[in-house]
Amino acid sequence: MTLRIRTIARMTGIREATLRAWERRYGFPQPLRSEGNNYRVYSREEVEAIRRVARLIQEEGLSVSEAIAQVRASPPRELPEAERLAERFWSTAVTLDGDAVTRVLDDAQSVMDVEAYCDRFLLPLLREMGVRLDVAREHLASALIRQRLRQVHDSQPAAASGPRALLACPAGDHHEGGLLLLGIHLKRKGWRVTLLGADTPAQALQGACAQVRPDVVALSFVRSRPPEEFVAVLEEALRACAPFPVVVGGLGAREQLKAIFSLGAQYAESSEELVAIWTQVRNAQNRP
To answer: In a 3-state reduction of DSSP, which class is residue 147?
Structure first.
């Protein structure tokens, strides 16, 4: 599948004039010319090469010529396996080819253990979606990754006993990738997990707490909210979950730490931190 220069500029953040200047000065990239109208057309491999050049310039401070030389010297097939698979993922996502994206996810899963696959492959892809893809491509790719995380989560053995966690994204938060990842880690640590998922209203939290009586409730705030909205949503969730302890995480919570602690909740950035908080709460409750 080939793409026009206007699309490439939008997808990579490199202006059309800059791409043409690179082509004249460095012979990079090397697009084909469409029949009849002689437009520049780019393959998905060239798209990723352009992305890699841009990344080397922006993140490592290389000059254009140095970045192009490095990309030419290290084509994707010579990169470390995880990085090569990530490059393949972005190349296929650009083309809106869902079947090809699925094949990349399958190939990565076949060569990685569960934690490497989820933590070092799928999660970084989710985090980069907003800057790497336009809206249509982000929707397709993120949906496939969330679907894969859900499959991994559901495939983990269910513990017959052990502490129970109730996991949810609060009302208005639709990004459940981090929540699924937390569920995977907790299940692998022997926890029983009840996963409510995205956009869970307070009433549903209250009903679920009454039913399963969790040892801890974990709420994932990903969407950034104004402080007053964040406080209102968290207050409502805390009332719904009382008397069970609530641990909050996610990018949208990181900027609201003062409000979280003042309302009586806890904050964690990983399953290890959540388990440590739960252990402290349990030990405090068991003291005479």
So the answer is: helix
CB atoms within 10 A of CB 200: 24
Radius of gyration of the chain (CA): 23
Tokens representing 49 are 């090469």
* Contact indicator for 153, 115 with CB cutoff of 8 Å: no
Report d(CA 133, CA 12) in Å as an integer. Answer: 8
Pairing outcome for strands 216-220 and 164-170: parallel
* Residue 44, Cβ density class (10 Å: 0-12 exposed, 13-18 middle, ≥19 buried): buried
Q: Which of 243, 247, 241 is nearest to 270 (CA)?
A: 247
pTM: 0.74
Per-residue pLDDT of the chain (288 residues; tens, 9 = 90+): 557 787 777 777 788 899 989 999 999 988 877 666 667 777 777 877 888 888 888 888 899 999 999 988 876 666 678 888 888 898 888 888 899 999 999 999 999 999 999 998 999 898 888 777 888 989 999 999 999 999 999 999 988 899 999 999 999 999 899 999 999 999 999 999 999 999 999 999 999 999 999 999 999 999 999 999 999 999 999 999 999 999 999 989 998 999 999 999 999 999 999 999 999 888 887 765
Cα angle at 95 between 90 and 96, to 5 degrees? 95
* Residues contacting residue 233 through CB under 8 Å, at least 6 positions apart: 170, 171, 172, 225
The three-state (H, E, C) secondary structure of 206-252, written as one string = HHHHHHHCCCEEEEECCCCCCHHHHHHHHHHHHHHHCCCCEEEECHH
Determine the Cα–Cα distance for residues 251 and 222; give it in Å rounded to an integer: 5
Structure tokens at 32: 């084909």
